[in-house]
Design a protein that fits this description.
- By secondary structure, the chain is mainly alpha-helical.
- It has one domain.
- Helices cover about 70% and strands about 0% of the residues.
- It contains five helices and no strands.
- α3 runs antiparallel to α5.
């Protein structure tokens, strides 16, 4: 046996995601855009808000905007469920309010 090891290429992961998991990186692009909106919002502030409740509200507002713009329905038509995402946003907000009230 040879001591030569086969090292997987990073390209294979991109191929897998593009071919099977998320063709065209549609979901990845949407998540990246939401993250960029959050970072843009943070960069416009003089002082950072350490209360997580504001970010939870931003996530809710962003999800509603995605619903209004039709992106959520496009994802659902493509067979990509957003129910878990919506549920986690709601759970995050409940946890943020619970943290605030401690």
């Amino acid at each position: 046996m040879s001591e030569l090891r086969i090292v997987p290429l990073r390209f294979e992961e991109f191929y897998y995601v593009d071919a099977i998991q998320d063709p065209g990186f549609f979901v990845h692009r949407g998540i990246a855009q939401v993250n960029l909106f959050i970072l843009r919002d943070l960069s416009d502030r003089i002082l950072l808000n350490f209360g997580v409740e504001a970010y939870g509200q931003f996530l809710i507002d962003s999800f509603r905007q995605l619903e209004v713009s039709g992106i959520i329905s496009t994802l659902n038509v493509a067979g990509i469920t957003t129910e878990h995402w919506k549920e986690h946003v709601v759970q995050f907000n409940l946890a943020a309010k619970e943290w605030r009230d401690r």
